[in-house]
Amino acid sequence: MTSQGVEIYVSILGSGTCVPSLRRSSCSVLMQINDNLLLFDSGAGTMRRLLEAGKTIFDISHIFYSHLHPDHTGELVSFLFANKYSRTTHRRIPITFVAAKGFAAFYKSLTAVYGDWIELDPELFSIVELDKSAVDTRRFNDFTVTSCPVEHIEGSIAYRITSAGGKAVVYSGDTDFSEDLVTLSKNADILICEAANPDDLKVKGHLTPSLAGEIATRSNVGQLVLTHFYPECDQVDIEKECRKTYAGPLVLAEDLMKIEL
Which residues contact 191 (CB under 8 A, 6 or more apart)? Predict the structure, then answer.
């Protein structure tokens, strides 16, 4: 359960990318709302970071995927396989996978390769597919999820998680500048936003610190958390670049960083 006065706990499990790094695991964020543990993406290193954060795979109640690139889904197969382990413990609570339309087919293709090694008990496993081309809102027991398409690859979506008490956290996933993300993030308490490359190394499909700052400013978010850093970001002053467009509370993500809301 969350502590009195805290509605959402956020833990950055992975602040990096597909590039191997001793400092940063691939993309993953954990949120806790009451007894719900929500995992956003599961790149390489996620399960180890989860243990370091004091949780296990069996505690996770929901996994949300922003898109299907390997640095965001890399440990999906390992996660499913590990959930089959039952010598000392096993999954007792249901788990829901949430992603854009097409995820069920992606999962089916994985089972075609791995078979029952990764197939979970149907009573403990479900998939919810969201609209990949429009805003979509779904209500769960203790929170509401709103998603929208973003500018990365086909099927890329961002998420806004709103607690029963009205606190809101937005997770951008991978994206270029997106008006839909500006709208989704409006007045959110926290925007966890990718800033993959420094300003002078901008690439299509990804944000830079100053572009992420522009989104945060236009959205009037309470706090901006930059993440998904390629190694080049560790060689420049990311905060200075973001401050070109954003003057509010700013955090540069590190693995295992915790934020209370």
Answer: 169, 170, 172, 185, 215, 216, 219, 221, 223, 224, 225
